[in-house]
């Protein structure tokens, strides 16, 4: 299988606080990987290191055979290959739904406006938000905003979609609509790396689950291996706490 | 009766008042616009991310100079600034500014200093998530500022800019010290001829009020226009 992103010996500290310690990890093409673990375990930081929103202190991030950390000059070009979905949606507040989805395409990928609108419309249909192209972010519900954010990321035609706790800021009723879209993306064969607290969703959708604790990957494997028959004590304790 | 006096003052001097209002508005509006431009430029330079490079040292020197500018113009009376700019530049450098140009320059520099703080605050107040989302789609810092951050800062700082405009309309009065022929200066010279100080300045105050009131309404309208329609049209989905 093709490895899209290969992370080797990654470390990250905030001051004296070592958040990631020698993390080794990869994502294959077409694979859906869920990162689970308690708050502060470093899973969000790991995800943010992948697209360099956090600069790692050491290690390698290999994308298509190249170590990105060695060629820091071209961060912007690298980032276009990764679609990011944030916990707080982070739609551009000054732009409407359609403009949110075409800005990056036009300014970064240098697509024509017609092409950008066509692509954006396709993905807004995917997430079921095509009726809201004229709406501004502050006129949408949380779930709608997150679906637009997903469409914005998809519009850049990334190789990998990164999701940083996409449903954690949502009302319980709206979690479902976002997870439904993500499930659909997974079924379509998109490569996805998801940080989530939704265990049931992780079990259903992932090819592989990675459990992190205190800045290290404790164990990883298929959903059955990790969630049903965990090998490590820490994983068992975490799962007991989240399911009970 | 003073009401009769007022009518006669208006009747005899309306063209002078009108001209003076024009000059007041010209200085206030141009000063506010130029000041806003200065403020945005300083705010942008000030919030460039600092990296440990040679460029950074140049940036720090520029930032220091800009801080001096802001502190000087915020910390001294505009009347004093007017004297320095108009008479000082002539004495020290032989730059003989036209009175009106000097007036506009003083108001612009003064507004720029205040606007710099407003814009800086506005940029800092934009959520980190907006920058991160822009970075995540591959935008550079410059693109992020131009397409995402500054439009929001502009919208958010519009009320403060409007406030500056209103203040400038009133504060042009201090430019009378260098002889700018604005409304206060004109009222003073008219009242000096007719000795009807109360009536003349009462008329001047009404005229100031008309200008400031109109300015605030216009700016409020502008802000509404920028916000776009309250409701969005939902498109028919086939």
Automatic annotation (TrEMBL), chain A:
SUPFAM superfamilies cross-referenced by the UniProt entry: P-loop containing nucleoside triphosphate hydrolases (SSF52540)
Keyword Membrane: yes
Compartments in which it is found: Cell membrane
CDD domains according to UniProt: ABC_HisP_GlnQ
Organism: Lysinibacillus alkalisoli
Major localization class: membrane
Name the record gives this protein: Peptide ABC transporter ATP-binding protein
PROSITE patterns assigned: ABC_TRANSPORTER_1, ABC_TRANSPORTER_2
Keywords recorded for this protein, A-Z: Amino-acid transport, ATP-binding, Cell membrane, Membrane, Nucleotide-binding, Transport
TrEMBL record, chain B:
Similarity annotation: Belongs to the binding-protein-dependent transport system permease family. HisMQ subfamily.
Membrane topology: Multi-pass membrane protein
Top-level taxon: Bacteria
InterPro entries from the UniProt entry: AA_ABC_transptr_permease_3TM, ArtM/GltK/GlnP/TcyL/YhdX-like, MetI-like, MetI-like_sf
Source organism per UniProt: Lysinibacillus alkalisoli
GO biological process: amino acid transport
Keywords: Amino-acid transport, Cell membrane, Membrane, Transmembrane, Transmembrane helix, Transport
Subcellular location(s) of the protein: Cell membrane
Residue ranges annotated for the ABC transmembrane type-1 domain, each copy included: 21-219
Name of the protein in its database record: Amino acid ABC transporter substrate-binding protein
């Amino acid at each position: 299988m093709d490895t899209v992103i290969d992370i080797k010996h990654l470390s990250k500290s905030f001051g004296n606080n070592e958040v990631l310690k020698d993390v080794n990890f990869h994502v294959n093409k077409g694979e859906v990987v869920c990162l689970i673990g308690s708050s502060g375990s470093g899973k969000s930081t790991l995800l943010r290191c992948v697209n360099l929103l956090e600069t790692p202190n050491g290690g390698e991030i290999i994308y298509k055979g190249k170590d990105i950390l060695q060629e820091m000059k071209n961060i912007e070009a690298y980032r276009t290959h990764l679609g990011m979905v944030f916990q707080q949606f982070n739609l551009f507040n000054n732009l409407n739904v359609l403009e949110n989805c075409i800005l990056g395409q036009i300014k970064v990928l240098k697509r024509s406006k017609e092409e950008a609108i066509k692509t954006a419309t396709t993905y807004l249909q995917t997430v079921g938000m095509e009726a809201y192209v004229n709406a501004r972010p502050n006129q949408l519900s949380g779930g709608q905003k997150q679906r637009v954010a997903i469409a914005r990321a998809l519009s850049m035609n990334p190789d990998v979609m990164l999701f940083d706790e996409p449903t954690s800021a949502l009302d319980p009723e709206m979690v479902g609509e976002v997870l439904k879209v993500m499930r659909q993306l997974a079924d379509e064969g998109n490569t996805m790396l998801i940080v989530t607290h939704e265990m049931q969703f992780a079990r259903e959708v992932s090819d592989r689950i990675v459990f992190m604790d205190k800045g290290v990957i404790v164990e990883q494997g298929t959903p059955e291996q990790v969630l049903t028959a965990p090998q490590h004590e820490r994983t068992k304790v975490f799962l007991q706490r989240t399911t009970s | 009766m003073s009401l009769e006096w007022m009518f006669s003052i208006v009747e005899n001097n309306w063209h002078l008042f009108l001209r003076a209002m024009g000059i007041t508005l010209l200085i206030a509006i141009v000063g506010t616009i130029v000041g806003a431009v200065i403020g945005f430029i300083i705010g942008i330079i000030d919030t460039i991310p600092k990296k440990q490079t040679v460029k950074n040292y140049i940036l720090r020197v520029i930032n220091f100079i800009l801080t001096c500018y802001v502190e000087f113009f915020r910390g001294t009376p505009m009347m004093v600034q007017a004297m320095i700019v108009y008479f000082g530049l002539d004495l020290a450098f032989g730059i003989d500014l036209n009175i009106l140009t000097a007036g506009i320059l003083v108001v612009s520099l003064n507004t720029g200093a205040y606007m710099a703080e407003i814009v800086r605050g506005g940029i800092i107040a934009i959520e980190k998530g907006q920058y991160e989302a822009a970075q995540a789609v591959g935008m550079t810092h410059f693109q992020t500022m131009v397409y995402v951050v500054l439009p929001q800062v502009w919208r958010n700082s519009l009320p403060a800019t409007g406030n500056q405009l209103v203040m400038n309309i009133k504060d042009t009065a201090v430019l009378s010290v260098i002889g700018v022929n604005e409304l206060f200066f004109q009222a003073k010279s008219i009242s000096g001829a007719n000795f009807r100080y109360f009536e003349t300045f009462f008329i001047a105050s009404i005229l100031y009020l008309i200008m400031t009131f109109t300015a605030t309404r216009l700016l409020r309208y502008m802000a509404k226009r920028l916000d776009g329609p309250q409701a969005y049209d939902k498109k028919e989905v086939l």
